[in-house]
Design a protein that fits this description.
The chain is α/β, with parallel strands linked by helices and 148 residues long. 36% of the residues lie in helices and 28% in strands. The protein has a single domain, classed as Alpha-Beta Plaits (2-Layer Sandwich). The chain has 4 helices and 6 strands, in the order βαββαββαβα. It is globular, with a radius of gyration of 14 Å.
Length: 148
Amino acid sequence: MPQIRLAYVSRRAPHLTDDAIVDDIVLPAMAKNRRLEITGCLWFDQRRFLQVLEGPAESVEGVFASIVADSRHTDVDLIRRAPDEQRSFARWAMKPVRAGEGDPIGAMVASLSPESIPPRRRRPREAPTPPTPGALTRIVRLLAASAG
Ligand SMILES: Cc1cc2nc3c(=O)[nH]c(=O)nc-3n(C[C@H](O)[C@H](O)[C@H](O)COP(=O)(O)O)c2cc1C
């Protein structure tokens, strides 16, 4: 089965707590992703998510469809969906990364996801200005190296 890497940014629902992200999203996701041979990372700050999903195309697409429909975030903005046989998060069913103060990733995510996205848009769409391929690669490298 061919593998893909998919990445998106989204807007975190206003009342979603950090604890709820870890307990109610990341922990169940780890179990399900493991079954589906999906690995990846979920970065979040107070307003946004950036998620990378990697694994068999069918598994990733199926989980992504559930994620897009999930009301715990909005404005899901697809930034990459491409064949990729290499995994950056091979040891993580879903690595949670909470943004730290002055987190350089936050500024990089902002550049991928213009703040002009209208609220409550529910359908995934291509980013209006396609990010340079190097931008996501740099973020993935930082996320893979972070303590998690
Ligand atoms: C930001 C965000 C990231 C998520 N990431 C994953 C994930 O990596 N894997 C997963 O199975 N569910 C993830 N979910 C949860 C799915 O939206 C959905 O609730 C879950 O897949 C439902 O699984 P079930 O129908 O098997 O219970 C995520 C949800 C949100 C809001």
